[in-house]
Write a structure and sequence with these properties.
Length: about 290
């Protein structure tokens, strides 16, 4: 498996792959890979001839008070995990680990922005976040020339935003959103789970408990989002007394438009601070 750090080298290798008539599946990550990431790589392996996994802790998607310096990193471990999960397919695979100064030169001033979908949920709380996400992913598309890209449902809004960008800019890329991978107790796998101590780890399942409660209420015939949201908050507080709910939102799955009544396709998203660690999760309710 090749490890490439140069943009020019990655572009040249991508051209070579295409010239050989092979297809490329891209898996963009920020590293510190867990089983959720590995499931995306497995999906990519089934989708195309060559898998390109990118590892880049993107500074443009972090706000001024966010955790970029603290964000966990394990480049050597990540490369080993990718090699193992790909098996024989690793022989043709690529790990692209670009340098920050190459992605964002000193005079960098061009940004990709998706307008409406980024104004709500995470975008409302982190106003510069998605501009950074869409810009870096557009750059990765241009560099690696993928036929398919795989993202996870764990970052639901991100997937919706990037799918819109892919359509709007005319990228000829198959856009795949894979299911969220969870721990045995339901906690959505995330690199930021590394921040959790024993107590925080136990309390972090409050997000999953709340979403599961919402889904059960919908199954029982409750459709009023105010009623469901109130019960979700109670479940969160019962599990983690110190939890601070950033938001609980009920939206249409594709448009992210808020809804007052649950109907087919409604998704619930939430962000919760568990003793200082901000976690997000989501679940389709019907």
């Amino acid at each position: 498996m090749q490890t490439i750090r140069s943009i020019k080298k990655m572009q040249a290798v991508a051209r070579e792959i295409v010239a050989k008539g092979k297809t490329i599946a891209l898996v963009p990550t920020m590293g510190y890979l867990h089983e959720g990431h590995l499931s995306l790589i497995r999906r990519a392996k089934k989708t195309a001839d060559v898998v390109i996994t990118t590892i880049f802790v993107n500074p443009a998607q972090f706000g001024p008070r966010e955790d970029i310096k603290r964000y966990p990193r394990d480049e050597k471990g990540d490369i080993k995990k990718i090699t193992e999960v790909l098996g024989k397919a690793a022989a043709d695979a690529v790990v692209f680990i670009p340098r920050g100064e190459d992605i964002y030169a000193d005079d960098f001033q061009s940004w990709v922005t998706v307008e409406k979908l980024t104004k709500t949920l995470e975008g409302a709380k982190r106003p510069t976040h998605f501009r950074g996400v869409t810009t870096v992913v557009a750059k990765l598309f241009n560099i690696t020339r993928p036929d398919a890209v795989v993202f996870g449902m764990k970052d639901f809004q991100q997937a919706v935003v990037l799918r819109q960008m892919t359509r709007d800019l005319g990228y000829p890329i198959k856009f795949i959103v894979a299911s969220t991978v969870r721990e045995k107790d339901g906690l959505a796998m995330s690199s930021r789970n590394a921040y959790l101590g024993d107590i925080e780890r136990w309390e972090a399942v409050c997000l999953y408990y709340a979403l599961s409660t919402a889904k059960e209420m919908v199954k029982a015939g409750v459709t009023d989002t105010k009623v469901i949201g109130s019960e979700m908050r109670a479940v969160i507080k019962a599990t983690c007394r110190m939890a601070k709910v950033d938001y609980i939102a009920f939206t249409e799955f594709d448009t992210l438009k808020p809804v007052k009544t649950i109907s087919k396709g409604t998704s619930c998203s939430l962000a919760v601070h568990v003793r200082g660690v901000r976690l997000i999760d989501n679940m389709k309710l019907l």
